Structure formats: structure tokens, C-alpha cells
Amino acid sequence: MRNTVIRKAIAADATGIAIVAAYTWATAYSGLLPDSLLKNRIEALPQNAGRIKSLIEKGAFEYAVAVQDNAVIGFCGYGKSRNPKFAQHGEISALYILKGFAGKGIGREIFEFAASQLKAAGCEKMIINCLEGNPSLNFYIHMGGNVVGSREDEIFGGYKIKEHILEFDL
Fold this sequence. Notes:
With about 170 residues, the chain is α+β, with helices and mostly antiparallel strands. It is about 35% helix and about 35% strand. It has a 7-stranded mixed sheet.
């Protein structure tokens, strides 16, 4: 039996969150995003950890973490929607579980934790953006999401991506 704890992140979790983000991008988005972009995320770990720590300390962004044996093995970022078309919604902006821990229900648990936090904050619906080609789209649909649109975004150095927008009732 696994002993994974799902909880709100604290500043001391920032480095673990940055590591999970970098390595899950490298495994999940290989072939979908340029290798140089994925490599740069790993090289930028110290800066990203500092940025995440600052966001947590200021209360500027909410994170939930999945912790096993005192190590962050997954995380979820959530809060008010950043998309003006869904201004009254909550949003899960990131949900990543390290590859060796995926497929064991941890993603579902951390998803449900974040959704319950958004509902407690007064949101009746939430959205998630999912990179086109990402197999996680099936997970989000299984969790009750409906694809309601798409969007283009520019990330890290001007690279353009396309994402599906999924909407969930809370």
C-alpha cells in the first residue's frame, strides 16, 4: 500500500515542484515540444524553484503536492481562471505526476483535491488547458471534462502551442 499524502504546498516544496515540472515535461512532451525547450527547463531548475517559492510565500498562486517519503512526486497548480472567456471559472493550470508514479491513482487524487479547493472558493466550474497531442486528454475526459474550445499560446522564447480547453462542473 502506498503512503502518498496530498496537501497544499508550502515554500519548502518549491524545489520538488520545479523538479517534477521539468522532468514530467521531458517525458510527457518529448516529440510534442522542441528538445531544446525541454532541456532548458531542466537547466533552469534553480530559477524556477525560486520563482515557485516566491509565489507560494506571497500566496499569489495555489499548489497542491503529492508527497511520498518526504519527496514531491507530483503537483497541481490551481486558482482563478486566467482565460477572460471563462472569468467566473476556476482553473487547474498544471497537473504533473512523475512517470514512475503515474497510473496509480495519484493524478485522480490531486485533481480531486484541487477541484474541491476551487469549489470551496466558490467556483461552480473549472477549466484545464491540455496541449494538443498530450495523451492526458483522455484522463481529463475520464474525469468529466468536456472539450469546449481550443486556444493558441506562446511559451518560452516564442514557441507557439495549441491547446484544448476542457470544462468541468464542480
